[in-house]
Amino acid sequence: MKTQLIDQFAAQVSPEKRRSVYESTKATHEKRVKLLTTHFADPDGLRRLAGGIKQHAIENLDTLLPLAEERLKAGGAQVHWAVDAEAARRQVLEIMQRRGATRLVKAKTMVSEEIELAPFLESHGIECLETDLGEFIVQIDHDHPSHIVRPIIHKNRREIAVSFEKNGLGDYDDDPTVITRRARVFMRKKYLAADVGMTGANFVVAESGRLVVVTNEGNSRFSLAAPKCHIAVVGIEKIVPRDRDLSVLLNLLARSATAQQLSVYTEFIRGPRAPGQPDGPEEMHVIFIDNGRTEVLAGECREILRCIRCGACLNVCPVYRQVSGHAYRSVYPGPVGAVLSPLLAGEQFLSKADLPKASSLCGACNEVCPVDIPIPDLLLRLRDRAKREGAPSPGLPPMGPWSLLASQPTVWKAALFGGLMLDHLPLRLIPVPALQAWISRRTLPKWRGGQFRKWLKTRGKSHG
Amino acid sequence: MTPIERKPPLGRKVQLLATCLCDAFYDDAAIATVQVLEHLGVAVEFPAAQTCCGQPAFNAGDWAASRRVVRHLVRTFRGELPMVVPSSSCAAMVYHGALLAFAHEPDLPEVEQLARRTWELADFIVNGLGVKTWPGRFDAALAFHRSCHTRGSQSAEAAATLMRSITGVKLVELGEAEQCCGFGGTFSVTFPNISEAMGRLKLQHLRAAQPDFLVGVDTSCLMHLGGLAEHEGKPAKCRHVAQILRDALQNGGLLAAEPVDQGAPVAASAEGDPHP
Hints:
The complex is a heterodimer of chains A (464) and B (276).
Chain A: H1 5-12, H2 15-39, H3 43-59, H4 61-74, E1 78-82, H5 85-98, E2 103-106, H6 110-114, H7 117-123, E3 127-130, H8 133-140, H9 157-166, H10 176-193, E4 196-199, E5 203-205, E6 210-215, H11 219-225, E7 229-235, E8 239-240, H12 245-258, E9 265-269, E10 283-289, H13 293-298, H14 312-316, H15 318-323, H16 334-344, H17 364-368, H18 375-388, H19 399-405, H20 409-418, H21 433-439, H22 451-458
Chain B: E1 13-16, H1 20-24, H2 27-39, E2 43-45, H3 55-60, H4 63-76, E3 83-85, H5 88-101, H6 108-115, E4 118-120, H7 121-128, E5 137-145, H8 155-164, E6 167-172, H9 187-190, H10 192-209, E7 213-216, H11 219-231, E8 238-240, H12 241-251
């Protein structure tokens, strides 16, 4: 039986992995709900406010981005614009080559994953070290992140201990404290030797030119402490108008992402080291990356650009909980990824057009989204687009004939009574994939077509 | 989902959209809907040309096909009367989904006109008519399945309010109540593995809660959950909320039993006595 790709993937996920992804996403989600409802009288009102702030920002990028550039430059940073992934990669490489730099330490940034930066730099002889513990483990395993906040949600500590041993980081030991300490010892040397530190930005404030970076491990701070040069790669939708907007967004981000009041480290960066400051990079570059975002902005799913990458929609999504992140074949998995990935694929839209179908449209993602993105509506719009552009949809019964049936009352009524024969057919022999998919797992209720209409008639109260 | 602002109902007459699932499988849920509304003094008009709300094609992404069905719906349900639907899912299709599908269509205003008078049954009783308690009695433990299309609407709270008020009813909590049952329309057949896994989780919680009946405002979720349970050989008794309300009236002697062509008196097949 041919089903959708993500469904086929689901059948191969081991029960152990499924259980661990399920349990941890569920726990984070429940803690998040508790935190938001105890800390705020009206968390939904707050989500809508945050959504309004971000919507305003993305609809005013034409004024906010130049303002941010001006303020960043005033603070001593150099600002670059990258229209696509290729341009962004080149700019990073040029900055590094100009400085004769060969070693990069990198804090977690999803946009660097999106532009496939690390493999590119490595192919040019640059050592590129992920310093977020999860991303580091993904890197040494030549794996891919499976969650935007918790990249190794699909791995257990035994698998990690095996990787550490294989990579010369000590004999097998799956004690999390030991694993963390070993990573720390390894990374400290790398921080000190690095030429360039890279971060993303969770927010860029237009009015102040302030970059905001949140982490829990302090690795972004280390990445900025020793290296002489800081490069920040930032999607253009990360802009917010004012510093005070951060009070709303930071409060929601940490609670939504990891069920914390605030991340352990929240850094506000206004430029390279100023005269009189004891340390910090002497040079700072901010690369604003479009890579398809203005196309998204021009389309009917622009609300997705509000996203602050908290991962709450992944944690609550019943589909994500069953399949985890790799099923989505994209940097951004889960509900947000099912919208964003096909859109960012640009001309390759059809290659990702099945992702928006991987949802029962239950709406849980919209309910938890800290910026109130109507994700189900966007998934539906993309399904409509996929259909119009001729994407295949395995397992789906054709809707054209059905719609003809459902718009002709006489035919409809005939079918209702005709359906009675369903009860007398050997259902397993009918070669309709949708029917087989249903009855291989569920019984079909007894056909009662037209019985309600008959009842109405007998009792003589039908006015129709 | 933010539902469209609706007009308060005028008078005591409604049009009934019975839903295609009631038309094909769950006639008793539709019958109960009529009986419950009539008990409240509401005259029920059944436009016989009705078929479906158009949601299957809408969710499948075939919006052109969906619009064809919605246009038929709009033609069939003309006028100013409230349109009452014993399904939160079909109601949401009309007051939300159809508006998305018609965003760029010239006849959007006609669709909006219908959207503004579309009510899910429990929502209509509680928030349209202002009825907040239900007479009669029903001696059973009920687990209420909060179907996903009640999100952002007042339907789930309305249904729970009514059931809670019935003498003899004990509402039991379902674990992870906010989780989807996995039906999702065509999702149930295009993503059968995931759909089944989601349904099984619900059944686990259902079996832990041990209610006498699983009650919902949507026969679609009940068809999926009831079908899974029965396929496992461990049937679950499912009821539409209208059936509970109607049975409470009958048990309390407030409604004479009407002759019904018995065959499938309840929501899912193979089940027990509908009048505990």
